[in-house]
From TrEMBL:
Lineage, uppermost ranks: Bacteria, Pseudomonadati, Pseudomonadota, Alphaproteobacteria, Sphingomonadales
Domain of life: Bacteria
PANTHER family: COBQ_COBB_MIND_PARA NUCLEOTIDE BINDING DOMAIN-CONTAINING PROTEIN, P-LOOP CONTAINING NUCLEOSIDE TRIPHOSPHATE HYDROLASE
Pfam families, A to Z: MipZ
InterPro entries registered for this protein in UniProt: DNA_Partitioning_ATPase (IPR050678), MipZ (IPR015223), P-loop_NTPase (IPR027417)
Protein's name in the database: Chromosome partitioning protein
Length: 254
């Protein structure tokens, strides 16, 4: 599950790339978009489906649906429908507080919270002292996830692997990056999440959206520039960091 109550963190782009990467490895993947207003994940996969029909190329393609944002019965129906026969169900959530996202968090095995390397984004999960930049306390979202993990543990004895995914790292001023890194490390020990590198801010991600393509579909958009090769390496490192099942046995092809 990809969740962050702040928009603009690359959540949907990351969710799509993970879903396609898993499908490319032969996993049976479903995807559920809970953001019925923006519907970025759903539109991305609509575009991919159109590219498949237009070109006749058999691209890796998850099953997917978008929730209406209102019906609990429909939400339960989609969870059951998409989970049936799937190895992975990838859920993308709105960049705001959402009742269905809260329910989905409690049932997630892996929760990924993408964030940009800034204290604006960090404020969602923790608050810092304005002079020392040391963490003062966890923020409301960390407390929400803490409560969800306790609920999950009581329900079936399992835990939620919470991952903070750091996107767009290299374009941040060095001193600020060190301060944000230090704050994330402090908070991770306090509330128990893992930290992994995510995706950079690259034009190629926006350019591929109209066709529904990802960095794994190089044959569909021609030769790869050095920046594209670097983007694929980022994706490899991100997938390794997620440590999902199948990770040891499969590789993203070069």
């Amino acid at each position: 599950m990809f969740a962050n109550e702040k928009g603009g963190t690359g959540k949907s782009t990351t969710a799509v790339h993970v879903a396609i990467a898993l499908a490319a490895r032969g996993a049976r993947v479903s995807a559920l978009d809970l953001d019925h207003r923006q519907r970025t994940l759903g539109r991305y996969l609509d575009n991919r489906q159109a590219t498949i029909r237009r070109t006749g190329h058999a691209l890796p393609m998850p099953r997917y649906e978008t929730h209406d944002g209102e019906s609990m019965d429909r939400f339960s129906e989609l969870l059951e429908q998409l989970s049936a026969g799937a190895d992975f169900l990838v859920i993308d959530t709105p960049g705001r507080d959402d009742p269905f996202a809260r329910i989905a968090v409690t049932n997630a095995d892996t929760l990924v919270t993408p964030m940009n390397d800034s204290f604006v984004d960090f404020d969602l999960i923790g608050q810092v002292d304005p002079d020392t930049y040391r963490v003062v306390r966890p923020s409301f979202y960390s407390e929400l996830i803490w409560d969800s993990r306790k609920t999950r543990a009581k329900a079936d004895g399992s835990t939620i692997d919470w991952i903070v995914l750091r996107n767009r790292m290299q374009h941040i001023e060095a001193r600020n990056m060190r301060r944000v890194s230090s704050a994330i490390e402090q908070l991770s020990k306090r509330v128990g999440f893992r930290v992994i590198p995510g995706l950079s801010e690259r034009v190629i991600y926006r350019e591929l959206f109209p066709k529904g393509l990802t960095m794994l579909d190089s044959r569909e958009f021609g030769g790869m520039a050095l920046a594209h090769v670097a983007a694929r390496q980022e994706l490899r490192e991100m997938m390794t960091g997620l440590a999902l099942p199948m990770q040891e046995d499969a590789q993203i092809s070069a």
